[in-house]
């Protein structure tokens, strides 16, 4: 995972929030009425996907994508129509996360403070493809990272296979290139850019190979 700047809220969202939030609050906080059936957030899927470069905010796979409520609707009904609570997610991650919300919450892909960004919580085992909590985290922060890995199934077989295949492909391409070729640096920068699928594991691999952060 890496940090994504979600940007300012879209102006047209306010009308939906003003009109539909009350029913969500009444049902989940006050036990009134029936469960709301609206899902107008889906109309913002393309806008959100553009911000996330068409990549899942959790596993970084290229995907058609869905609007995930980072803080789930049932627990935070006042945030159902808040742009700051939406994450572009693939179906697998969105479905696995569902309405879950552990005691310490999850690592926010759009965290505003540097200390709360995903890069401070996770790194990769490049031999297995697994995403794992960083060493030295406090117990609370480690629990937050581990809960996210387990609840969203970020180390499911298809994720591991995708990461390992990508690492092998990158290794093959880099191994066949002349590092003095001007195109080599362009290639490295492209595959490590945040709008490229699996860029976090790519940067981890490049760092292991001795590439500098400003190059990778």
Please describe what this structure looks like.
The chain is mainly alpha-helical and 216 residues long. It folds into 2 domains: 85 residues, no CATH class; 95 residues, no CATH class. It is 39% helix and 7% strand. The protein contains 7 helices and 4 strands. Strands 1-2 form a two-stranded antiparallel ribbon. A two-stranded antiparallel ribbon has the order 3-4. Strand 3 and strand 4 form a beta hairpin. The protein starts with 12 loop residues before the first helix and ends in an 8-residue tail after the last helix.
Radius of gyration based on Cα positions: 19 Å
Portion in helices: 25-40%
Beta-strand content bin: 5-15%
- Describe the strand arrangement of the main beta sheet, using strand numbers: 1-2
State the order of secondary-structure elements, H for helix, E for strand: HHEEHEEHHHH
The major β-sheet equals: 2 strands, antiparallel
Key attributes of the depicted protein:
mainly alpha; 39% helix; 216 residues; 4 strands
Short description:
The protein is mostly helical.
How are the SSEs ordered, and which strands pair?
Layout: H1 13-30, H2 45-51, E1 66-69, E2 86-89, H3 91-97, E3 122-125, E4 130-133, H4 139-151, H5 157-175, H6 182-192, H7 199-208
Antiparallel strand pairs: 1-2, 3-4
